Structures are given as structure tokens and as C-alpha cells.
């Protein structure tokens, strides 16, 4: 029974690895386009930076010194780490100078963070359980960061949509009152014009009578 459970666990792990590999390779057409045009155009590096550090965290989690018997975690995320590294290399090659510098500094920061975390956990924390708990918690945060990263691309458009809806809402709220105000002003102007016309006629009549 235990043997069957281990086989099932391994089988599901392999299936998970295959699915993860497909996901990691899904942006490949985008990078083929970048390679051909030799420009990243308007593509953002944020999702790939997030996935890069997320895979690095899970590799750290899966090593025997942190969480033993997690070879599948290491293989799938190690592969993802390498693939994302290739994607980011293409961003560095085909971005303008300002964007290239920014991406490079973020990559360096992520690598320093991973190295620092590994050193601190492996030297200061003595048991596998505690190491797994600490690194695992950070990995979960990394997962959230990775799946939320596309929002960084959507944010400007979302902001524009929100502002547009706000404008439409304000227009709907104040349209009728503005229309009434305009009608009132027009009526007042017509009344003033009528009074002025009447006054002019009266003055002319008085002048004629005096003559």
C-alpha cells in the first residue's frame, strides 16, 4: 500500500513537472518575435522577473538540506529558473539602455536575496522542519508575487478604464441638473431680453409723445 502511494505520488509529480514545463515554455513565441525584431517592444519583464525568483526559492526549498526527498521540486523549478534566465537575457540584449539597467539591477538583487536567504537558513536554522517552514512560507509569498505580476502590465489600462467609468458616472449624475440649469439660464436671458425690448419700446413711445 505504501509502495503504491509512493508510485502515485511520483507519477503525479512527473505530470506536474510536464505541465510546469509547458507553462514555462508558453512565452516562447513572444521571445522568438523579440529575437527576430531585435526589440522587446512594449513587452514587460515583470512576469519573468517574478517567475525567476519564485523558481529560485522553490529550488532552495527542494534541496536535501532544507526539505529532503523533493527531487521533483528541484528539477521542475531548476528548469524554470534556467528558462526564465534565458528570457531575461533576451530582455537585457534587446531593451533600451534605461530598461536594461533596471532589469539587470533587479536580477542582481534577486540573486543576492536568494544567496543571502540560503546562507542564513542553512547556518542559523538547524532542523529540516524549521528550514522547510521558513523557506516554504517565503515560497508561498513568491507564488503570490508571480501570479500577481501580470497586474503590473494591466494596471495602466485598468486605471484608464476606472477613470473613464468615473467620468461616465459623473456625467450621468450631473447631466440632468446641468440641463435644467442651462434651461433656467436660457429662460432668464430671454426674460432679460424681453424686458430690455419692452423698456426700449416704452422709451421710444415716451419720446414720440413728447415731440
Automatic annotation (TrEMBL):
Keywords: Membrane, Repeat, Sugar transport, Transmembrane, Transmembrane helix, Transport. One of its GO terms (cellular component) is endomembrane system. InterPro entries: SWEET (IPR047664), SWEET_rpt (IPR004316). Residues 186-211 are annotated as: Disordered. It holds the Pfam family MtN3_slv. GO terms for molecular function: sugar transmembrane transporter activity. This is Bidirectional sugar transporter SWEET4-like isoform X2.
